Batch of 2 targets.
Target 1
Amino acid sequence: MWLDGAPVHSCITPAFRADGREVTTIEGLGRPGALHPVQRRFAQAPGFQCGFCTAGMIMTAAAFTEDQKEDLPRALKGNLCRCTGYRAIEDAVKGVGAVETAVPGKAVGRSVGAPAALDVVTGRAEFTMDTQIDGMLHLKVLHSPHAHARIVSVDKSAALAVPGVHRVYTWEDVPRRRFTTAIHTDHLVDPDDTYILDDTVRFAGQRVAAVLADTVGAAEEGCRRLAVEYEVLPAVFDPEAAMADGAPPLHGSPDPFVRDPVHNILLELHSHIGDVDAGFAAADVIHEGTYSSPRVQHAHLETHGSIAWIQDGRLNVRTSSQSPPIAKVKLEYLFGLRPDRLRVFCARVGGGFGGKQEVISEDLVALATLDTGRPTCLEYTREEEFTTASPRHPMTLTVKLGAKADGTLTAVQVRNVSNTGAYGNHGGETVYAGGAAVMIYRCPNKKYDAYSVYTNTVPSGALRGYGMTQPAFAVESAMDELARALHIDPLELRRRNIVRPGEPLLALHDGPDDVIFTEDGLARCIDLVEDALARTADRPPPGPEWLVGTGVASSLHETAPPTEHLSEAWVTLGDDLVYEVCVGTVEFGEGTSTAHVQIAADQLGTTPSRIRLVQSDTDRTGFDTGAFASAGLFVAGNAVLRAAGAVRDRILRFAAARTGVHVVLCTMDDDAVLCGDRRVPLAELVALARTGGIRFTAARKAYGSPRSVTSNTQGFRVAVHRVTGEIRILYSVQAADAGVIVNPAQVRGQVEGGVAQGIGFALTENHHLDAGGVMVNPTLRNYRIPAYADVPRTEVLLVDSGDSVGPMRSKGMAECCINPVAPALANAVHDATGVRFRALPLTPERVYGRLPAERPVPTG
Amino acid sequence: MDLNTVTEVVRRPSERPGTDWREGDAWLAGGTWLYSTEQPDLRRLIDLTALDWEPLVLTDEGLEIGATCTVRDLYAFPWPEDRTPGSLFRASCEAFLSSFKVWNAATVGGNICLSLPAGPMITLTVALEARYELWAADGSVRFVDALDFVTGDHRNVLAPGELLRRVTIPEHALRRRTAHRRFSLTRLGRSTVFLVGTRRPHASQLFLTVTAGTTRPVRIAFDSLPDARALRQSIEAVPADVWFADPNGTPDHRRHLTRHFAAEICRELTAGDPP
């Protein structure tokens, strides 16, 4: 916001300093119909995805001097965006626009703007916490200081004596029902190992108690006054140590899902196709290496949070989730509620990236509201995000590859040890997903062994790339090492071994699958990246102390998860001649809303302006498994396509019957139907239909099967400083097969954002734990997600393919773009320095010590 | 963020505000750090900006910086051409992790009193041999060298109720040649190391100020221009426990970077000397 026209951060400005001064917020800068020029540019670029950072971006950019516009790395230091990768924000600041309009029936393929664009740039879009309810109470959580302890007692008396404190909840006050916080349609794919509040804490940061009070301040004071007696138990943080004999067992439960509770093994996978021993025996060259990917955080800018209240006797939960329908099912189960007794919905959600594929805030507000009848609110702090919300699984993978001298793979063997943390949410599915990294290459002999292991650390969860990012780092690094051992160009080695259309996609088993794959998208991605790297090869290094190299990596990804994924869409032509499209998919910046509107507009022969989207509300939309695994486009998009198509057919049949023109001669024409030569306005048809008791409406479901594959290849040219260990990205390119492109600007934005997030995970983000398993740096100032200055521009090259079974032959793109980023970087650093880094992140203090002291200046 | 334990703000403190000091108080300047993190031990804030201390006064004796001078004002100060370190002042402001928006409120004194290893106002004022004027709660005044003020990570010599009133940079320091180097783990991130070398014109005395990489500022003084070996030995002589470990750097890397950048600074400050 601005104070007397000068931009300041409202969160660190004492409120009294605004006394007597002019305060300007995004709402005051401009409004729909009278936009400030910077608001218009952010809508036109479009310079946002989830929109949570947009108010700050616009208020900052609108205050820039001309000099600051020329130095955006410095001028935008104080503005973080986790979605866009910043190119789109630069465009917005500089007035470069990509948003296009569409003529009726031709919205797909155009970069039309997001339905919420005007609301986002004017501050009118409501995020989860942007509301006020009279009499609302606030929850604060007391977190465990110990990584493993039994709660002997909790003395609530001093906390309850704090003025304004209403309740203190401990394990004794919650339903004794185990559940999993992970969101999947099939709840059986995750273990039921979690209580809302437990009498044992298994990681530092776990909930011990929750205090409900009139104000956040009183609830915090209540937490400080709780006297908790712990019996501290031995803790184990490393998964290999946790599997060893004598390690402290975390979960003594007899849950049949857990494979080996004594050795903390949640799940073991052993798959073997062909005979790897014979494959290695036949190899000319064998490479083996162990690669590790650390814990990293989503850092979506809107933290988790939920608000619950009772209305007309029903529980209402407004929440920041990637799946209100599954959150609803879990609350029904936990609190024994009949399905019609509750509603769960989202306003706009400020980023997710998988972090909100969990139920970790809804349970406490539901508990408190059901108990007291009062509205209650729980909003995570940033620190709680880092210490308690589910980060990416740390994985250590040993990859062994065998190949003939010509590069033909003879054996692929992977051992994956994944750290699921204290609970098993997503612990199993992510190691299954990791099989994709062995699927990408054709080889008759494949072995994949995986262990998902409990440790006394924050529970891991879903994060963009979902169990494939870490194995991609391992396998794609190993392929690079193999290429060097074989003296074959790394791209050429891939070209010789990638699966091609017609060949089976073999990961964990050799059997029937539901994946349709008929075009060679990955090979074309490889070609495009090779050309792009060659085209830019003559760019000079930053200076004589910099070592320069290039690296590549590829990935292959199925367009929907292997577990059950379904979505239902309802389309209705209203009396206002606007089509209402109701679909459960949540919008948190992934852009499915725009795509759904485009798909519906095309089916109905109209423009996006005639589509009204109703979304993510269990009272107003049908079931939707959730916006994850890129299913928002692929599955929910198909539901929208089919429902819109059904309404179109119904209108055309009605028009044909009324006019006597055969239905094959009737077509949609924006606000009318062309029946032969005659143009019949929709208004007339709707009025006629109404008199006959007919409504133009349809519902359709879509499933995550059959599936397609999407693929990509990332290339980097980097410079590594010989002395300091600093890595600079000189050039970044990603080629992707996204099928038919629904919205070019959005696809580009997703790839750029995924690459930027991948760069953060590979280069700057570091989740430090102390010896007691407590995170040392749970703040954005010490856990550094990329800022504007840290992110290079990425050239995005799209392969057009037509083999998708998604809506309009499109493929979801938001997920897989991150997978090749880290290995391409590590491969480039190796090419530059001759040193192989097999553990992320590649921060300068980890790099410098291994660099060669002196290296002759390359010539020629 | 909301500081929920703070129930009172003294918006019009007396000219000598230390006399009212009590436990649970904090001096409030820009507030940009105080409001950035929980402060459960605080009950009351005393607003020093209400005292309207003169931000910047350039005299024949040197530069006086009022403790509540904002970083914005320092950055924008119109330097006379004959004072050399204008670029060092600007570089020190740019060394903040925070953006220009924070500079609109953050103060020079606040950064010094926060006493983080990476505090760039500490780097600047130590390098330029500043003296700090401190006002004790009982009204007495004392002066300390900038070098002696910060004693460790987030620790300094201030007694309860004592405040930093003014920073004075002596005239002779404003006429030194300076060279500086900074490194951070991200492009414009918080300093891993921030080094400043200063040299009297036409003299061989050289000061090397090492900050951010050390828990407290370290000054290495050379009466004559050091050769590579002397420079390296002087850095090796810094006690091992002074090298700072935090998420912005490791002690080994910081010592390594210090060796590298110290050599670069010496080269820069001796460039143009007769062989």
Target 2
Amino acid sequence: MTKTAKKPGGESSPARNGPKFSLWNFWVSATLLKLLLIPGYYSTDFDVHRNWLAITNKLPLKEWYFEDTSMWTLDYPPFFAFFEWILSLFVPKFVRKDGCLDIVKVGDFGLPTVIFQRGTVIFSEILLFAVLQIYINKSSLSERSANFVVASSIVLSPGFLIIDHIHFQYNGFLFSILIAAILAAKHQRYLFCGFFFATALCFKHIFLYLAPSFFAFLLRVYVLNFSNFKFKSYYDLISIVQWKNLFKLGGVVLAVFTVSFAPFISQWPQVVTRLFPFSRGLTHAYWAPNFWAIYTLLDKILTLLFLKVPYVHRLLTQIIAPPLIPATIEEIKWKLQQYNVGTKGLVQDVYFVILPQIQPKLTFLLTLFYQILAVIPVLFSPSFKRFVGSLTLCGFASFLFGWHVHEKAIMLVIIPFSFLVISDRRLLTPFRLVVSAGYVSLFPLLHGSADFLLKLLYTLVWSIIYFLALRQVTKMSSSVRRRVFFFDRFALFYIIMLLPMVIGVQMLDALKWRYEILQKYEFAGLMIYSIYCSIGTLSSWVGLSWLYNFDEPLWE
Amino acid sequence: MTAVKKVSKKSFFASPLYDFLSPFRPVGNQYYAEYVIVIFALVIRCAVGLGSFSGESTGPIRGDFEAQRHWMEITTSIPVSQWYWYDLQYWGLDYPPLTAYHSYFFGKLGSLLDPHWFALGTSRGLETPDLKSYMRFTVILSEVALYIPGVIYFTKWFGIKRKQSPIGTYIAAAAILFQPSLILIDHGHFQYNSVMLGLTVYAINNLLDGFYGPAAMCFVLSICFKQMALYYSPIFFAYLLSKSLFSPSFNIPRFISVALSTVIAFSVLFAPLYVFGGVKNVLQSVHRIFPFARGIFEDKVANFWCVSNVFFKYAENFTQAELQKFSMYATAAGFIPSFTVMFFYPKKHLLPFTLGACSMAFFLFSFQVHEKSILVPLLPITLLYCSSDWNVLSMVSWINNVALFTLWPLLKKDGLSLQYGVMMILSNWLIGNFSFCTPRFLPRFLTPGPSVSDVSESYRRRSLLPNSILWKLIIVASYVAMAIIHVLDMFVEAPQRLPDLWVLMNCGLGFSCFGLFWLWNNYKLLTMRNTSFADF
């Protein structure tokens, strides 16, 4: 009938141009979805950021880090405070009236404030889209489609959706600076790399965990030059340092830090105590899925075992000397009473009954140890891939062994890993493990029933799309060594079982009122989450470390 | 045939939906496309569900949410014989029995989770967050079970018949599943229209496959869920009768199977009412279902009676009985054309057209119409997104926007303005209606373009507007009028004497657009009656 209506235009040219790989459509659709999330749940982090808006707007700069009317004191580095200050300049009058900028103990605000603050998150996230669009545009034609998959997987990440747009934070914006640094490293713009990473650090100091890798990489590729190096005496070591580059890089980084911290130089100790509060416990209220979750579980199992089967304890005391484990059953009981552990998941500090207590120093050393292991190969042979690998492993080390780790920190692993995974198909298994376990471990952040289906379905559809897309764009293995298929199958099984785990825990939660045993173990659901997810993150780390350390052709 | 194939691929060519789904074109990936669009459709429904529902934290009577919850409360707690009698002043059950069984099922299920939600008497006006989540969940579950598979089957059937690429059918399915009005009413305002509509789609699917008995049964189920499905009944009647009488001659087994399945479905559905309460109970339910004692229209609705009531006050000049008679005549006159076409030309591809024209006639002229009833004509009309005719697609997209616009006063009252705006933009943007205004002022590296599909960067998709200049003018003018009414509604206080002026203007515009569309639809039927499927 009216077939002439269609314009036959688009058919001829695409073969010439190829797709443009624009993130525009993704931005529009994602933004529309995020707008729908405005009336939904938000966590206390919302009031935290509102309070910071108020502090930076109402108080002179020198009081920012001293103000403590609300318990949500400013504990981000100065750039973030400046960022909040700039945002606060745009608060319209009706939002002001709503109580958005009041310095009070507990925020008293309504929908206008919510709309404004959610709007700032959505708006600031544009930077993420822009940076990733540059990443796509700058990539060579052969790898453009793969890079597009990576970029779109990051902008649509359920992690950002859950943490930023429901829970409330500004990670999308903050990570875009980190991604800019990675991007600069990829294109050998090392000064920019240093600049962006320093900036990112001054926005959110959690990026400090990635600092060893950046430091080693920049040092090796930009500052040191081994090309004409011949060792004759120690004086020759001086000649490998490219002093000009060192001063340029140092100047850039120091300039960033100066701009950031100089206004607060007189209150240095106060800023430091705010930024690094070591008074917190080993694990967060809900254990992040890391090594310590398994450690804690082991302690609980051993306690139970020793109490129920005293013989095991007697046997063990023969092998292990008493100070390391409690000498008698009475001591265990006494400790139990003392710490009042059991099922109270909300204690600020976790004590262990059987296993040795964990000191902050130990977690710090462990983290550092694994980070150094990750960094050493970069010093030997600084390729971009190896650098991103070391970034990922640094993120892993801090996440798995750090002190008071938040589940949100998994993004520090997932984002660098995303840039890595397209280079080899064998990396796909550890990547799938860490994204699925990592994103699922974010679910307890949204504990209301209203978001349950949303977070589950969104993560599910993201996984379907990107597991499929990444498999298609990743290169076949560069190494001749065969993959261990058993491991792949097992990982797939683990990932699929996440679904019944999530639904099961939700059902447990819904039926809690009915059975007393469920009330007694109120936090069993959260424990299941962190234990199950920590298996995924740990195995992903093991898998990646193996490839990183022992599979040489992959990283060139 | 190749020409058809080429064109049908292009129905939504270069729209964002096309762009999103084009990575699924390789055969190995097609399998996933279905899941991806369904899950995204569900995600959007969940997100809309975060908003408020009708009557959330208002007054003692509240709204549809409370009505549905209350029905779960009474069906699970009191005997069947009392269902249609219990405290009629407070949301007495006034839907057919399948709604009651549906409420019973979800009430029982919910009581397993928390018995307080549906406890008799004490649960009135309960609005805990968990209850809200559960109720939202039941709507989603009902839709997943009925409406979504029905729509997908329908689009696949049309796609295969027209030798469309699988992705083309999925794009059509996505366009239908992202229809904003149904999402906002079911998941925002709170109702279970998707059950009724889903059952109707099943009936249509059965007709397409030539299963006449099951089709009749599905349609009866649909009527027995919500009496509004009666808007379709003349067409189903005409089609089934015609297929039984002249196919090519009187087909007795088919006739008997249709008649029997209709009777059996009705009797099975009403049997519990009869068994537990006798004839009186059945009559009471029928009396409750058809409330002729109420006015000729309810609230403000974009149909003939409400709009012409501005100029001529019916209630003052005629008795209720007279008005009923008038509306009956008008409705009959309205659906006779589509009925006749369906009876004499029982062709499968005409089904959505006739269903649309017939139910639109009911919406415009029948008695006691709600603004939400527009969803009934909207269903067959939206199914026409399967078409490859640019004019049809344009009209469908236009009428979807008009329908959404007429729901604005209701959604505004429910506090769903944000969801309304977002869904309006989203649904239009997805099918490519905003391609004309993609920003070109952005820096070069950010300039919008297709993300994955092979559409060239400079290609600009035409907005969905018909080819005829007259229709173009009408449609653009209606959009401008909508914008003006929205602006007035938002920024200008209505005059003292006419506090409902903006709403009335909304209804007036809606009625004119629906009327025009209905005329077009009938004209289309007239011209299409002799076409075959291949021409469609």
